[in-house]
Amino acid sequence: MKMINLIVNGKDVVAATVEPRTQLADFLRDTLNLTGTHLGCEHGVCGACTLLIDGVPARSCITLAVACDGASITTIEGMDDDEVMRALRAAFSREHALQCGYCTPGMLASARDVVLRMPDASEQDIRFAMSGNLCRCTGYVGIIKAVQSVIAERREAGVVSPENPRTTLGPVGSGHAQPMASGNTAFAGTTKLVAAPVQRAAAATAPAPVVPAKKAGAPDSGKPLTTLNQSFSIDFPREQVWNFFGRLGDVTTCLPGASLLAPPTETHVEPKLRIKVGPIVAEFEGAADVVRDAANHSGTIYGSARDTKSSSATRGEIRYDLIEEKGGTATRVEVQVGFALTGSLAQFSRSSIVRDIAKRMTDAFAENLRARLSQGGSEVADGSAFHAPAAELNAGALVFSVLRDRIVAFFRSLFGR
């Protein structure tokens, strides 16, 4: 799995996890639910999947998502306020330039590029420039007329200068790539559009990653994050708890059902979370990066994961603050969780039930944390960390427990007991 940062339709998609082989079109459709990008031939021939990468038209069905790390992606959903696109949509409707509409999103993206780059284009120029977009319905006459009419309207309005969005050589979106550092086992990228890159290294001594700051609960990939607040107290000094939280492997495996896919570093961890909901067993695999603030004893975790057996995926961020209690002999852990769940398991993300389940998960995490700290922080004889996973998370049992408690509370209130 690789972690990437994108700007999609003007919104930050931070720390998204994808497989190296995932095409950009599949990532947009399956993970971000941007289904306006259509898949036709899936060989880069028909043009139905055309969208804009850094303002330049590109075939998303043959573009790897990891190759777009740091790029700005604009799909048909993100062009509602584009002046040229509004004119093209009106012209396509007026000139009957679409029938079934399947090719239309890619056709419009390519037509927009023609209008901007070729203000003096002839009919032959337009036909040649649009030859990479295939349509099996219209015969192309209405499409050509629509593009011609928009060019004519802009010429009458005094817009005659060509605009070329391409500013760098090489494949579209490649302007953000940098060579991988020695010993770095992950795809490394930088970006001029996202505040700072997320870098992963195999050695624990590698520089800490800098993750773009983003408030929990802010919109991400078009879907707002559900925000939950939890807290618990443990009878251990804050510095001891802080040091334990610095060992990502131990912290991760305190969560019920969590295990590790690879050895963690000081700032990066790749967890696997097994969840059972009745007969459904989901196994989420993902990655997360951590930024810690030692001065304030706080940290923020940015991560995402995907179920290996379905289209379900989740992304979010967790902020924790450690506060001294009882004169420094105890610590209160305050946690703010922002998450978004998509796919078939999203039906279990109703906030009222999730809040109760989160409370039970927090209690289980706190109990495991107390046990690890009581054992000296889970360090074995040679000083290495011990990452034994906690018990499997049975979400079905949690849901049943929540519903049972609610039914009991309802009848108690009904009969005044």
Automatic annotation (TrEMBL):
It comes from Undibacterium arcticum. The keyword tRNA-binding does not apply. Gene3D superfamilies: 3.10.20.30, 3.30.530.20, [2Fe-2S]-binding domain (1.10.150.120). CDD domains: fer2, SRPBCC_5. PANTHER family: OXIDOREDUCTASE WITH IRON-SULFUR SUBUNIT, XANTHINE DEHYDROGENASE IRON-SULFUR-BINDING SUBUNIT XDHC-RELATED. Keywords: 2Fe-2S, Iron, Iron-sulfur, Metal-binding, Oxidoreductase. It comes from the Bacteria. Residues 2-79 form the 2Fe-2S ferredoxin-type domain. SUPFAM superfamilies: 2Fe-2S ferredoxin-like, Bet v1-like, CO dehydrogenase ISP C-domain like. InterPro entries: 2Fe-2S-bd, 2Fe-2S-bd_dom_sf, 2Fe-2S_ferredoxin-like_sf, 2Fe-2S_ferredoxin-type, 2Fe2S_fd_BS, Beta-grasp_dom_sf, CO_DH_gsu, Diverse_Oxidoreductases. The keyword Iron applies. This is 2Fe-2S iron-sulfur cluster-binding protein.
